[in-house]
UniProtKB/TrEMBL annotation, chains A, B:
Organism in which the protein naturally occurs: Oceaniradius stylonematis
GO molecular function, one term: ornithine cyclodeaminase activity
Top EC category: lyase
Signal peptide (residue range): none
UniProt keyword annotation of Lyase present: yes
InterPro entries: NAD(P)-bd_dom_sf, ODC_Mu_crystall, ODC_N
Keyword tags: Lyase
Name assigned to this protein: Ornithine cyclodeaminase
Family listed: Belongs to the ornithine cyclodeaminase/mu-crystallin family.
Region (Disordered): 1-21
């Protein structure tokens, strides 16, 4: 695809290791091919294992807060983290007004690098990958928190994340029925259509109240950009698990405060969730449990059948890191990537200018 | 180069603007072709104008400190900034031990995005581009600080940055003679060879003392990773301009402290330079002048012939931003880029899963 600059035949040893200047790139097209070749549910399940492994290693991670650049119309963020072996970051924007212009609200890409030498190992689209990791993370949390034997999930908000959530809970928790509701019936119809033939019994509902009937798990993933009350207190019976995905930035929440006060709350990274999650409605010292401590067994998850558990998910850099690490491992032996000539590799590191001159000479002699 | 996933013929309006999912990518190969097509000296001069324009707009910039991830063997950094219209960041690593393995100490790439919609506009290699912007920045500073009529520059440290500095000072300040010195004679020989035929009179010297003889400008760009004394006090006569490039991280300096005490010191961004630059040797409140204020005319640059001016340069995110902005403008109408299918663009933003399913169906029908 790309061609490397021609080198003189007598390359001085040691010289750069062959191909070290080339960075594998996973395009949107190749990401879709890879996911379809493996199968969506299998990707979600395998990815969940990487995410859970990394949560288990939580203290090893360098957890930098995301670096945000705000403007009047949106935000651009960099989310870096490292486990000491790999370094990863995600670029992600959020521009709610983009949909009016036929553009995506969120686009994302990411890079995985070697901590040992600082070289990028992988560049990937991350819009699809983020949708997958968000659903896989929800299912990881629910594996530890949802009531045993849960079979029915209510899904309030039927946007881009909906089908991924449904399939992750089917594959990993044995959910066999989903009850869909969205303020836009078109979104519900889209999700119902997409979930046909997946083995899930799909019920389209006309209200949130109808959607939660008989459900043991409630997933909220609406896209409202303001404080909203997708779930009111009377909709949430005892013993439920709530998987709250949509509250993910300051000023954006989905649940009535009273629900939070009745729930045991589990979060990814408290300093971030207190700003971005549902718990921004609560006092700063309201007790929450970190998910990683449930996964390691340091803290209890669900302890009683009548308990309401709430996973207040905002998405964290380690989940993107896990996704990039999974992708890096899974790419091996496939053709689902291209190689980008992204890193300069002069034969003699100090001779960058000489490399430039030789490229000029080479192109003149073409 | 890349193929976009096939779309159904009846795309629902408004739909994503044509090609908005494609991100122009400038490989190392294309960067060299672009620079050679324009000419190195012209690139340096044009780039210097972008850098100077952005220094002039300094208060407009969102100046985030770089986000560093340190390990025992090196560092990986993200350097973001924005002027409210564009957003840019550079990824750069620093691994001194890499050269022993035939790898680069530093690799870099960067992204320029639209603040308006958050979409990346450009992905580029930045090893060559950083070398160019560093030299152009030095020349911008010298344009305001060096003694009038300077013709001879001493260059101590003849590594990857050397030739770019020499050509920037030739093109922008009228330097016609350079005096080279490096502790490794092989580096000096390399730089002298590369500068043949550029119109510069090149003198290879066997000591720093010899190199500074008759020079009006001294550029230090050594790669020592520790406190070093490349210039001692007695080597610096009155009236000189010192362009100190190599002191660029904590614990790495090039100049004897006494030189700093005799100089008027100009820096890019004091909070960063006090940590990384030559002035880490001085008290935290030692007076320094910000280069942008000299460029806008708010503060005087050189005020007397006998004054020693010192540009204590560590490299700042706005310079990378200027370089990406220049590249973005300069790419137009050239073929020196590829287009990467990096951003998912489902026809209906909420139907990411449907896009994935249709890709699967399309590949089965291939």
């Amino acid at each position: 695809m790309t061609s490397t600059p021609s080198k003189p035949a007598s390359q001085t040893p040691p010289g750069p290791p062959e191909g070290s200047n080339l960075v594998p790139f996973v395009s949107v097209d190749n990401m879709m091919k890879l996911v379809n070749a493996i199968g969506v549910e299998r990707v979600l399940t395998e990815l969940a294992d990487y995410i859970e492994d990394d949560f288990r290693r939580w203290p090893h991670f360098d957890k930098t807060p995301r670096v945000a650049s705000h403007s009047k119309v949106g935000v651009i963020e960099l989310m870096p983290t490292s486990d000491g072996e790999y370094y990863g970051f995600k670029y992600v924007n959020g521009h709610p007004k983009n949909t009016r212009e036929g553009l995506q609200t969120v686009t994302a890409f990411g890079v995985l690098s070697s901590v040992e030498n600082g070289y990028p190992l992988l560049l990937s689209e991350m819009t699809i990958l983020t949708a997958l990791r968000t659903a896989a993370t929800s299912a990881v949390a629910a594996r530890h928190l949802a009531p045993k034997g849960a079979r029915t999930m209510a899904m309030i908000g039927n946007g881009a994340q909906c089908e991924f959530q449904a399939l992750a809970f089917k594959a990993m928790l044995g959910i066999d029925a989903v009850r869909l509701y969205d303020t836009d019936p078109g979104a519900t119809a889209k999700a119902a259509r997409n979930l046909q033939g997946t083995g899930l019994a799909v019920t389209s509902c006309t209200s949130g109240e109808e959607a939660v009937e008989g459900a043991q798990i409630i997933t909220t993933c609406t896209a409202d950009k303001q404080y909203a009350t997708i779930l009111t207190d009377n909709m949430v019976g005892s013993g439920l698990h709530i998987n709250a995905i949509g509250g993910d930035c300051p000023g954006k929440t989905e649940l009535h405060r009273d629900i939070l006060l009745r729930s045991d709350i589990f979060v990814e990274y408290p300093p971030q969730t207190r700003i971005e999650g549902e718990i921004q409605q609560l006092d700063d010292d309201h007790p929450v449990t970190e998910l990683w401590q449930v996964i390691t067994g340091d803290t209890a998850g669900r302890t009683a059948p009548e308990q309401i558990t709430l996973f207040d998910s905002v998405g964290f850099a380690t989940e993107d890191f896990s996704a990039l690490r999974y992708l890096h491992d899974r790419l091996r032996g496939t053709g689902f990537f291209e190689e980008l000539d992204m890193l300069a590799d002069p034969d003699e590191p100090r001779d960058l200018y000489g490399m430039l001159m030789r490229a000029s000479a080479a192109s003149r002699s073409d």
